Amino acid sequence: SLLLQDKVAIVTGGAGRNGLGYASAKMMAAHGARVAILDLEQADPTAAAAELGPQHIGLVADVTDKASCVAAAGQVLKHLGRIDILLNNAGITQPIKTLDITGANYDAVLDVNLRGTLYMSQAAIPAMREQKSGAIVCISSVSAQRGGGILGGPHYSAAKAGVLGLAKAMAREFGADNIRVNCITPGLIATDINKGKIPEDKRAAILDSIPLGCIGEPDDVAGCVVFLASDLSKYCTGITVDVNGGMLIH
Ligand code: NAD
Q: For 177, which DSSP code?
C-alpha cells in the first residue's frame, strides 16, 4: 500500500507552485495523503489544492495569527476528518546585515518562521494527541547551523535556529503521545525565495562549496518530508535531516 494511505496532511505556505511546500504537498498526495494547503490569501491556496486534485483542500491561513491557525485546523478536521501530518513550511527571509535589522524586520522574520511554527503546531497537536499519533515536520535551514546561508540575514538564522530548538522540545514533550517532531535543514534549493537573487559572480564559488556540485530541487526536500511524515521514520523524533548537497558536513 501507499506510504501515506489514509493520512491527512497540513502544509503551511504550500501554495507557491515553485516552492518546497507545494512540492511536498504534491509528493505526499502521490503517496496517498489527502492534503490541506494553507497559505496567505494572495497566494490562492484554493487554486493550488484544486490543482492537486478534488480530494485536497485549500485554506487561507496566516501562521502569524493564532486564531487563523486554530480556525484552519478546525476546517481540516471538518472536511478531512483528522490531522496526521503537519508540515511547518511557511517562511520568509530578508538579506539584511546585523546592524541594519530594525524591530520591524525582526518581527516580520521571527513571526512567520518561528511564531508560525509554534502557533500551527499548537493548533494541530490536540487532534494528534487524541489520535495518539502524529508527525510534525518543520522546515529550518542550513542558515541556522552555519550562521547564515547565502541570502538570509542574522535574524533569519536566529529564527531558523529557534525552530530547531522548538521542534526538539516538542519532540520531547509529545513523544508519549506518539507525536514525532523532526526538522529539515535545506541548503540552497531553487525556489522563488532565492530566484534571481544569487549574484552571478558568486555562483561558481557557491557551487564549488557544495560537494554534490549543484543547487537542490524542491523534490529533494519533498522526498525527505515524505520520509519523516511516514512510518518509515517511526523511531525518529527530534532529528534534523540535512538536505544541502554536502554544503555543511558536520
Ligand atoms: P517560497 O517563498 O516559495 O514559500 C514560502 C511560502 O510561505 C509562500 O507560499 C508564502 O506565501 C508563504 N507564507 C509567507 N508568509 C506566510 C504566513 N504569514 N502565513 C502563511 N503562509 C505564509 O519559498 P520556499 O523556498 O519554498 O520556502 C519554504 C520554506 O523553506 C521556508 O520556511 C524557507 O525559509 C525554507 N528554506 C528555503 C530554502 C531555499 O533555498 N529555498 C533553504 C532553506 C530553508
A: G
Q: In angstroms, what is the span from residue 190 Cα to ligand 1's centroid? A: 12
40/61 Cα distance (integer angstroms): 6
> Which of 27, 39, 140, 248 has most ligand 1 atoms within 8 Å of CB, for mutation?
39
pLDDT at 235: 98
Q: Is 186 in the pocket of ligand 1 (CB under 6 A)?
A: yes
User: Which CATH number does 8-243 carry?
Assistant: 3.40.50.720
Give the whole-angstrom CA distance, residue 239 versus residue 162.
14
Residue 200 has pLDDT above 90, yes or no: no
pLDDT digits (tens, 9 = 90+) for 133-187: 999 999 999 999 999 978 899 999 999 999 999 999 999 999 999 999 999 999 9
Cα dihedral sign, 136-228-34-142: positive
**Of all protein residues, whose CA lies closest to atom 32 belonging to ligand 1?**
91
